[in-house]
Amino acid sequence: MMLPDCREWVEDGKVRSSGRDRRCSDKDREAVLNDGDRGGTGGRLFPATAIAPYNRRDDDGGEAGAGSDPAMRLPPSLQAGQPAARVQPDRSGPVLQAALFRVSGMDCGDCAAKLERKIAAMVGVRSATINFGAGKLSVEHDLDDAVIMEAVRNAGYQAERVDNIHRPPLAGPSWWKDMRTVATVASGVLLGVAAVCDRLGLPTGVVIPLYVVTAITGGYQAARSGFYSLRALSFDMNFLMTAAVVGAAIIGEWSEGATVAFLFSLGNTLQAYTLDKTRRSIQSLMELAPLEATVHRQEGDVRLPVEAIVVGDVVIVKPGERIAMDGIVRSGVSAVNQAAITGESIPVEKAVDDPVYAGTVNEHGALEVTVTKTADHSTLARIAHLVEEAQRQKAPSQQFVDVFARYYTPLVLAAAAAVMVLPWLIFHQPFAPWFYNGLVLLVISCPCALIISTPVSIVCAIGNASRRGVLIKGGAYLEQMGSVTAVAFDKTGTLTQGRPAVTDIIAVHGISEGELLAIAAGIEKWSEHPLAQAVVERAKGVVLKSATHFKALVGRGAQARINGQTMYVGNLRLFEELGCDLGPNEPVLADLEQQGKTVILVGDRETLHGMIAVADTIRQDSNEALLALHRLGVRHISMLTGDNRRVAAAIARHLSLDAVYSELLPEDKVATVRKIASEHGNVVMVGDGVNDAPALAVSTVGVAMGVAGSDVALETADVALMTDDLGKLAYLIRLSHKTVAIIKQNIVFSVLIKFTFLALLVAGMANLWLAVFADMGASLLVILNGMRLMRRLQDT
């Protein structure tokens, strides 16, 4: 895919060719960007998924730490410094608070949706949102939290208030202490005993009570939840199963009623276990940060909970410990394993003034870290929060399923009622068989497997990505990544390192390259210019020449005295002013400049000693990442840059690009992304997440890379790469392909099961226990199929 001889350039809104593309046909050229396409960003500037975390409220109902500038609250008289009476806060109206609850026992997507609607309809509740993937309920209300928790309990679930400190979840009880598991095991044992007694022909006075006890033991939890759903006039799966068990008892089918109760209890227990495993894939993020840390205080070193540690505190991290807080290294040298945050497999060396993140591991050496963020605003906490928000966003396929289920369930319920009653009323058929068939249809009508088919897959995929250092803001973006046909890359800091580096050292006039570098770095070490710093960086390990009388020459370079002689380091203009003869070296200068490199000249007033070329270098993995995208079916890969055509050409010459756009202003990048989308379909824009925010916003999916520690970039992008690893784009597309495939499998399987059992019912081959077994089995298989996304993807 290397196309150096057939490339186009967009400069100042016009398309130009490189001069070597005479063989290009018109259809191969990029269309001209019309002036009318420029200017104006259009669309959203920031994704709608950027949601601030829950903030602790102060006593006056305001949010602590946010918008707390006193001048913003005072009346004009006080702001002007004039005396005024003390202003009391207005407490006449209700104060809304954002509360977060962890809900247990919520194992059915349809049931979760019904609970959300119930809470949202309460007086005093402004909004309620359930994150089924995380098992959490967020409520904006002016009630007491106990009222919300009581309402959740009345719906058949348990709720506890949680804060924004992402603590590890409490370990669940052992199975013999879990009432649902114990009831399921007891119900199974009783059912076995009852079946044996029935087979041996024992009296019904013995057998029927055993079946009744079996049904009560296995069906109590479902009956309790079904009662609450009936009170709310919301007929969920628990109500349907309870109705089936009671109906079976009414018509004398004691064994089938007991079997239904046991199978439903068993299915719920297994479903709760598998769902808990998917939620743990996300909650494991929260287990990374310690709950306590050693803090250096005047009275000595004390062990404090992380919520008691404030910005400015000094935390002591011993070798082998996990770092508890985000901060800056104050003293010490060590290597830190940042895999939890960035996905990097190799520990990163840390020294004074380097940033460190909560949840990472200090490999060796003690560190003193000055805290820069509180625990609830650490990078790890932000990641965990954004991942949970992503779970709450509904993917397009999930929205389709929700709409389908909204119409499907009532229709089947009506059909079940008709099957129960109409043959008996109109055609004078026996009541019991048709009532039984109606019960079977009730069980079949539950859409649990269908509704859970998408969210469980999305949760597992997002959890997989987060462990690889890729944050996906929602299922919609995950699905869209699989359909991209074009990718546009910003150049600086994305395809390139984003900082100048020395590429060539050319010594002339009889000195060595090492001596030339020692002279240049000896002068440049006094300068703050980025090019000077690049020279100094290259000279690490070299004994520098001692320089005195340093003087910066604005716009030209610098001078200093070395060994009693005035030496100069600077650009071509400086040496032309000095009258230095550059004639013999002009071909080399021209060649370096043609490659898009900046040339630093080194010499004295009469003689040029050498040249040092500096350029923004290409990342080592850039071209391989582009080739991987081509192999995955991406048809159009382009580079967008504000640099001139010559610099862009030098970079593009080494990359597998289909088009290059140069000399673009931010608004030009927006117009270019729109144009690419109109010609090639769904387009991904990859940039730094801040400067490229408008272009990221108008793309199908905006990807920001290298954003660890950058809250702005975490919020603005649809997908955030925590490191500068471009190879994760191909991983992301492969993950999207696999996720969409599994979602389709789950939906087709769930619908097929329903229609298969409807056909069996019509043929008279379906019964209650088989319908329950199929429904719960389908739900479990759908969950297990989605859990395949938790595994590491194989590279292709």
Structure report:
This protein is an alpha+beta fold and 796 residues long. The protein is built from 26 helices and 28 strands. Strands 16-28-27-26-17-24-25 form a 7-stranded mixed sheet, with helices on both faces. A 6-stranded antiparallel sheet has the order 8-7-9-15-10-13, with no helix packed on it. α24 links the parallel β27 and β28. The chain is elongated. The two termini are 18 Å apart. The model is unreliable at 1-92 (pLDDT under 50).
Salient structural properties:
796 residues, disordered N terminus, six-stranded antiparallel beta sheet, alpha+beta, 19% strand
Topology (elements, then pairings):
Elements: E1 8-11, E2 14-17, H1 76-79, E3 97-104, H2 109-120, E4 125-131, E5 136-141, H3 145-154, E6 158-162, H4 179-199, H5 204-231, H6 237-250, H7 254-283, E7 292-297, E8 300-305, E9 314-317, E10 327-331, E11 334-337, H8 339-342, E12 348-350, E13 355-356, E14 361-364, E15 367-371, H9 379-392, H10 396-425, H11 431-445, H12 448-452, H13 455-467, E16 470-472, H14 475-481, E17 486-490, H15 491-495, E18 496-507, H16 513-524, H17 530-538, E19 547-553, E20 557-562, E21 565-570, H18 572-578, H19 586-594, E22 598-603, E23 608-618, H20 622-631, E24 636-640, H21 645-652, E25 659-661, H22 666-680, E26 683-687, H23 693-698, E27 701-705, H24 711-716, E28 719-721, H25 728-762, H26 768-786
Parallel strand pairs: 17-24, 17-26, 24-25, 26-27, 27-28
Antiparallel strand pairs: 1-2, 3-5, 3-6, 4-5, 7-8, 7-9, 9-15, 10-13, 10-15, 11-12, 11-14, 16-28, 18-23, 19-20, 20-21, 21-22, 22-23
